[in-house]
Amino acid sequence: MRIAIVDESAARASIIQEGLAALDDCELFVVTERRGLLARMAQIDPDIVLMDLGNPSRDVLEEYFAVSRALARPIAMFVDESDDDAIIASVEAGVSSYVVDGLAPGRIRPILDLAITRFNAFSRLQRDLAEAKGKLVERETIDKAKRILMQSKGLPEPKAYAELRRAAMNQGKRIIEVAEAIVTANELLGAA
């Protein structure tokens, strides 16, 4: 596992390194420079990122949130003080764990595991949502194609669907492919 530790303070970064010392098969990369952080992360290509920010300003937080949005990796963020707005912004930016005043070697491993678990669960939810949206769009296209067939051929809805299904079977295509062709042809003919 490749782990990037982002901390402008080498001393604080060593606390995280100490907490990860017992991990096998783990490469650690310590990044202490904020400038060019996204490019550096692309070079490292980490499996997880641990950011210790201490007590950052709003601008600094926003810089790190931008990195978080772009990385699509589990991220655990350590800060010294609680801030409700920062917590909300961090979750929206994809931060998997937002830990207030919790930087201690013994806590690093459980926080790392939590960040990975939450990231994987959130990623699964995002995939499920994208799939559901895709199916909804397909359903709408099929319904539109049925309406076109119902209007143009004077068919009732079950027969319009049966005609779609038969055409798909005869052409060796999915129903959505036939429906898309009908909708596109209808639009080209200016009947949309």
From TrEMBL:
Molecular function per GO: RNA binding
Sorted UniProt keywords: Phosphoprotein
Ranges where the ANTAR domain occurs: 122-183
Domain Response regulatory: 2-116
Domain of life: Bacteria
Protein's UniProt keywords contain Phosphoprotein: yes
Protein name as it appears in the record: ANTAR domain-containing protein
Modified residues (4-aspartylphosphate): D52
GO biological process terms, semicolon-separated: phosphorelay signal transduction system
Keyword Transferase on entry: no
Pfam families membership: ANTAR
